[in-house]
UniProtKB/TrEMBL annotation:
Species of the source: Stylosanthes scabra
Classification of source organism: Eukaryota, Viridiplantae, Streptophyta, Embryophyta, Tracheophyta
EC number of this enzyme: 1.10.3.2
Keywords assigned by UniProt, alphabetized: Apoplast, Copper, Glycoprotein, Lignin degradation, Metal-binding, Oxidoreductase, Repeat, Secreted
Catalytic activity, as annotated: 4 hydroquinone + O2 = 4 benzosemiquinone + 2 H2O
Gene3D superfamilies in alphabetical order: Cupredoxins - blue copper proteins
Family listed: Belongs to the multicopper oxidase family.
UniProt protein name: Laccase
Length: 527
């Protein structure tokens, strides 16, 4: 397996708001590699963002690259991961940003902070899994397990010894920094007999609320407070996670678990906590969209004087993108296992995105050499009357292209993402690089441009970098294009990215020096 510094999950990076990070990545494996700092805004430092062929050519075997960026105006939990092919299945780790010195959290100071990173595991080389899927045009083999901090847990005999244990003291508050680094599955997570208080998502504080279960999509992070019981509970507790699955696709139907264990007080005589009863949490049903909707509706920006929600109140450009799974023709050297002898493809506005291979989009843009690399005509159609949630049309074919949408500096953007049911409805966690956005509205069925915007929340919508486009529904987001560069946007279900559910925005430089992309570093990898 490919790892960083021989560790799995990879090393934890702990920084502070305002810090400048210099991270040298040396490639000692036989794969091309690149690393993305997921959720870091990379203001003016797009060269350090990391997606292969988008902002850089990959780092080749024996080569190195120094990622150089400053963390501006962000604090909370993010993560880093490989951003090429499926290498992020094993190449990932927490990226924790503490507030500036002397700036407290807007909630109870935790006794301890604990990163909990969910992953997905194959008893195979994940690169071979996706290579085979692309070759056959069918779906990839499902994973063999989910993991918590790299460990599948005690629910299966084969992995019982590989269990993450959280040892706690009674009567304390713990900050759990939850990260979903799984490739292809949104996850429910719960700890038996304990309530969690959500305080932060995607490194943005939210209005705190209590819940027994959280829902977390690949690419999302959630900070929760866990208050331990005031008295020794004479029990141990399971924490577990399993998928929220909306598609007809197959998924790994296993449950990952870890153990919450209380330190035994000295006045209690006990030989081993193994003799204590073990309580298990109840998780929502696999397809519990009603839970998913209620949960996402509870997420609101803190919107306090110290942490205001700067929601764009006016919009310069309205965009409407459909998000679909579809098919594309089978190549002559393939025997495709997709629907009717086709191969699976996925698209936004019917374009299945193709990455360049001889350079990166950002280099092509920055050096004025986009001509042979991409076109700036991403199809921006007005809302066409089409029932996106009705019966599948006969033609599910998508088109291919490297088409980008161009935004002048400081454009205020509203983007409606509409799930379609062309090959069945499915929730898609859409991730935008380079920005946070505000989730101003969401709903089921077809977005109605006359009615729905009237209900938008422009006061305290949640701000984040990854949002689930609801299965058979839509979500509306707003962001200010104040970061010059080329910014990838894609489904964080990795198989959908492999199938083309991705695109990129070009944000042009502004007039002032602090509105321009800085020049590329000298060690920027070559293709
Ligand atoms: Cu978490 Cu484009 O990535």
């Amino acid at each position: 397996m490919v790892t960083v510094n021989g560790q799995f999950p990879g090393p934890r990076i702990v920084a502070r708001e305002g810090d400048r990070l210099l991270i040298k990545v040396v490639n000692h494996v036989q794969h091309n590699i690149s690393i993305h700092w997921h959720g870091i805004r990379q203001l003016q430092s797009g060269w350090a963002d990391g997606p292969a062929y988008v902002t850089q050519c990959p780092i080749q075997t024996g080569q190195s690259y120094v990622y150089n960026f400053t963390i501006v105006g962000q604090r909370g939990t993010l993560f880093w991961h490989a951003h090429i092919s499926w290498l992020r299945s094993t190449v990932y780790g927490p990226l924790i940003i503490l507030p500036k010195h002397g700036v407290p959290y807007p909630f109870t100071k935790p006794h301890k902070e604990v990163p909990i990173i969910f992953g997905e595991w194959w008893n195979a080389d994940p690169e071979a899994v996706i290579a085979q899927a692309l070759q056959t045009g069918g779906g990839p083999n499902v994973s063999d397990a989910y993991t918590i901090n790299g460990l599948p847990g005690p629910l299966y005999n084969c992995s019982a010894k590989d269990t993450f244990k959280l040892r706690v003291k009674r009567g304390k508050t713990y900050l759990l920094r939850l990260i979903n680094a799984a490739l292809n599955d949104e996850l429910f997570f719960s700890i038996a007999n304990h309530t969690l208080t959500v305080v932060d998502v995607d490194a943005i504080y939210v209005k705190p609320f209590e819940t027994n279960t959280i829902l977390i999509a690949p690419g999302q992070t959630t900070n929760v407070l866990l208050k331990t019981k005031p008295h020794f509970p004479n029990a141990t507790f399971l924490m577990s996670a399993r998928p929220y699955a909306t598609g007809q696709g197959t998924f790994d139907n296993s449950t990952v678990a870890g153990i919450l264990e209380y330190q035994v007080p000295q006045n209690i005589l006990m030989h081993s906590t193994n003799t204590l009863p073990l309580f298990k949490p109840t998780l929502p049903a696999l397809n519990d969209t009603s839970f998913a909707t209620k949960f996402s509706n509870k997420l609101r920006s803190l919107a306090s004087p110290q942490f205001p929600a700067n929601v764009p109140q006016n919009v310069d450009r309205h965009f409407f993108f459909t998000v679909s799974l579809g098919t594309s023709p089978c190549d002559s050297n393939q025997t495709c296992q997709g629907p009717n002898g086709t191969k699976f493809a996925a698209s936004m506005n019917n374009v299945s995105f193709i990455l360049p291979i001889t350079t990166s989009l950002l280099q092509a843009h920055h050096f004025g050499q986009s001509h042979a690399v991409y076109s700036s005509n991403f199809p921006i159609s007005p809302l066409i009357p089409f029932n996106y949630t009705g019966t599948p049309p006969n033609n599910t074919m998508v088109s291919n292209g490297t088409k980008l949408a161009v935004l002048p500096f400081n454009t205020s953007v509203e983007l409606v993402l509409q799930d379609t049911s062309i090959l069945g409805a499915e929730s898609h966690p859409l991730h935008l690089h380079g920005f946070n956005f505000f989730v101003v509205g969401q709903g089921f069925g077809n977005f109605d441009p006359n009615k729905d915007p009237k209900k938008f929340n422009l006061v305290d919508p949640v701000e984040r970098n990854t949002i689930g486009v609801p299965s058979g529904g839509w979500v509306a987001i707003r962001f200010l294009a104040d970061n010059p560069g080329v910014w990838f946007m894609h489904c964080h279900l990795e198989v959908h990215t492999s199938w083309g559910l991705k695109m990129a925005w070009v944000v042009l430089d502004g007039e002032l020096p602090n509105q321009k992309l800085l020049p590329p570093p000298a060690d920027l990898p070559k293709c």
